[in-house]
Automatic annotation (TrEMBL):
This is PadR family transcriptional regulator. InterPro entries: Tscrpt_reg_PadR_C, Tscrpt_reg_PadR_N, WH-like_DNA-bd_sf, WH_DNA-bd_sf. Signal peptide: none annotated. Residues 92-178 form the Transcription regulator PadR C-terminal domain. It comes from Streptomyces coffeae. Residues 7-80 form the Transcription regulator PadR N-terminal domain.
Amino acid sequence: MALEHAILVSLLEKAGSGYELARRFERSIGYFWTASHQQIYRVLKRMESDGWIEAREVSQQARPDKKEYSVAEPGRAALSQWLHEPIEPESVRHDLAVKIRGAAFDDPAALISEVERYRQAHSDRLTRYLAGEQRDFTGPDAPATLTAGESLQHVVLRGGIAYEQMTLAWLDDVLATLHQLRPER
């Protein structure tokens, strides 16, 4: 997937400035597709020159005017074409898994602190996902009142939650195995 497609999806969900778009990448879509502010601004400029998005000047009080981007028809067509193209399942590249296998040729217990750090990062991410789900997708009427877009956002978030839960279970297994392999002192 190209960054352009992630930007098109985000702008179709809600028009916004480059800064607002970068914040969305930090908060939601960025959980699944990351990009720096510089990358986003560079791609926005190219997409605007290619006619995929349009920008309009929005005046602000006590601040400089900002550009608000929205998707133009050629951008919708490009996204539609991409949505209809088949994609291959991602290949897993997992540095930690290679380190774990490589630990057989060194001291497996030396990896415990690294796996614990890695586990904490995934635990923190799961906490953010669950908080986002609670904030955005719960309530007495949910999910009956969700729009199609919100329902699709929620199913992606649920996939992220399931992935983090699976990763944490695996990391717990890794830690238990590393502790078992610790040499007796």
